[in-house]
Write a sequence for this structure.
């Protein structure tokens, strides 16, 4: 794993945007895996800026989102569909037919999940997957005890995740209890992965994912198995890492650190 520590959330976002831009420059028809939540907001803002001011082109890009709440329509302001259009898709030139987001309102979840997995394979697999991390160590909505081999399916959200996400809803009771999510096994098939984290409330999860034992109780720890994963974190999110000095020493010597 590569670990990049930035002074603040802006640095984290810009560094991640550089990784995305490099991917698109070397492969204009790249398949991107996308996350929602607070963490990637700065990244999406920077990608929109690069598109508008530097001509970063998304015209051949395909995207697959990690997850969606079950029971929210695409128009619901807290749905991940809505989030993605508001924060990225409305502002860049990804063809609409190349955008895939799990459905939170299909009448056949099992068939949908199978189809979603198949579409990823038919599109050549995910070239670059962007991840956030939950305070309980989840990636996508693979909550503690999710199988590390899991595929796209419905998951029940952990109480901690519902509490964390209640800030976006009027009350915790309104947070959906179920989500449709790519599995850990699905994510591990991405060719390259970047996991972003900022803030003190992510520090323990980040440390457990990088330095702890690999365990289904911290699904981000499964990334230890992946050949090309980069953690891009701010100083607060890095603050529980035992080997922080070592990672920074390596980062200083990295020829192409983003
Ligand atoms: C969102 C997702 C989640 C979030 C995680 C962190 O698509 O897959 O795993 O990345 O819950 O959320 P924030 O960024 O809001 O702290």
């Amino acid at each position: 794993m590569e670990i990049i520590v930035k002074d603040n959330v802006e640095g984290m976002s810009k560094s991640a945007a550089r990784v995305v831009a490099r991917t698109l420059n070397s492969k204009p028809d790249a398949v991107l895996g996308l996350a929602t939540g607070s963490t990637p907001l700065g990244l999406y803002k920077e990608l929109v800026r690069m598109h508008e001011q530097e001509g970063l082109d998304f015209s051949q890009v395909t995207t697959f989102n990690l997850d969606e709440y079950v029971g929210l329509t695409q128009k619901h302001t807290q749905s991940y569909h809505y989030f993605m259009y508001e924060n990225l898709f409305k502002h860049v030139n990804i063809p609409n037919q190349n955008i895939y987001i799990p459905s939170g309102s299909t009448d056949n979840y099992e068939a949908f999940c199978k189809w979603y997995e198949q579409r990823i394979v038919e599109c050549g697999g995910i070239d670059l997957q962007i991840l956030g991390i939950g305070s309980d160590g989840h990636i996508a909505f693979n909550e503690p005890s999710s199988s590390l081999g899991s595929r796209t399916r419905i998951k029940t959200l952990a109480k901690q995740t519902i509490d964390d996400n209640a800030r976006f809803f009027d009350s915790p009771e309104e947070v959906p209890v179920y989500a449709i999510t790519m599995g850990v096994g699905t994510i591990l098939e991405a060719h390259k992965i970047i996991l972003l984290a900022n803030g003190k409330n992510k520090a323990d999860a980040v440390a457990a994912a990088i330095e702890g034992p690999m365990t289904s109780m911290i699904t981000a720890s499964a990334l230890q198995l992946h050949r090309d994963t980069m953690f891009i974190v701010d100083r607060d999110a890095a603050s529980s890492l035992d080997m922080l000095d070592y990672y920074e020493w390596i980062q200083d010597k990295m020829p192409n650190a983003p």
User: Anything to note?
Assistant: DSSP finds eight helices and ten strands in the chain. The chain has a mean pLDDT of 96. The two ends are 14 Å apart (CA to CA).
